[in-house]
Amino acid sequence: MSSSSSRRFFMKFKAVEEGSNSADGSSSRNKGRRIDDDDGGGGGGVEEEGEGEGGKELIKEERRIELGEGSEVMYMRRFMGMEEGWELLEYLDSHIPWSRPTLRVFGRECVQPRDSCYLVASPHLPRLVYSGHSPVAYTWDHFPPLLRLLDKVEKAIGGGSGSVGFNSLLLNRYKGGNDYVGWHADDEKLYGPTPLIASVSLGCDRHFFLKKKNKKNNTPPPTLPDSTTHILPPPSKRLKQSSNNQYQFQYQKKMKSNNSSTNRGDQQQQYCLLLKHGSLLVMKGYTQRDWLHSVPKRANALSTRINLTFRTVLPSSS
Ligand SMILES: O=C(O)CCC(=O)C(=O)O
Ligand SMILES: [Fe+2]
């Protein structure tokens, strides 16, 4: 399949809701100069304005968000070219051995609300276990496009020839707006106390939320890890767009609940980023120790999104 036909394939739902299948449902078809966030991503089925026009190099915008106390995220919106991204999306969609495992969450079994696959550089790494599930670790040597992506990610983060030393990769496939990942932190011991996680997004734009953990008991917020949307007020009431397209908001009201475990009354710091097709998000420092993140359900996310998170498993962490 050519790259343009593959792009059409992933944009097949576009006709259903013309110009509104960004994750937030906002129209991405501005006539004239774009002033919103959709100026070249194409994720979710918008045109590819801004991609290397006239042979110009892609602008690699960077956003560094200091979360405080040694936590930091960095967002690079145009990490890879649009066509390059669509080709990789198509390749991964058809070549990766996806599965949708059963997890155990708070003693309950539930089917993971997205497809995933775990790839590693070596079979001798300690096993990954999350939510009572230990995924099969496939070797990433069988997927040359992923090795090329790894190289690109390492160069972007490590600078020039620098090697970061990622040795594992977790892929998630969200087949539509009902697929999601609930509040969690990638704080498994095998990644060490300050993991560097590089997250590449392909396909449909989706919102990525960050919120500070509840320090008092260091437990997740009052939602099941895979069910988050209901505690957040509607985006229109909640999100305040700042000049750098990053949404920052705080709860305006106390959460209404008689349950003492949910009625903390503290205002949690939160951030939301729209993860675009071809973007790179890096989480570093104590982000996994002190913050939770999620990609909630979105009714308007009509097409497939694939997310890749490169991580480093510490060899002696078993
Ligand atoms: O899909 C995303 O952007 C996030 C995925 C994620 O948080 C994870 O795999 O741990
Ligand atoms: Fe995560």
Automatic annotation (TrEMBL):
Any Pfam family the entry gives: 2OG-FeII_Oxy_2
Name listed for the protein in its UniProt record? Fe2OG dioxygenase domain-containing protein
Q: Name one GO biological process term.
A: DNA alkylation repair
* Record: residues binding 2-oxoglutarate: N172, H184, H293, R305, T309, R311
Per the UniProt record, the source organism is Turnera subulata
Question: What InterPro entries does the database record attribute to this sequence?
Answer: AlkB-like (IPR027450), AlkB-like_sf (IPR037151), ALKBH2 (IPR032852), Oxoglu/Fe-dep_dioxygenase_dom (IPR005123)
Q: Name one GO molecular function term.
A: broad specificity oxidative DNA demethylase activity
Q: Write out the residues that bind substrate.
A: F106, G107, R108, Y174, D187
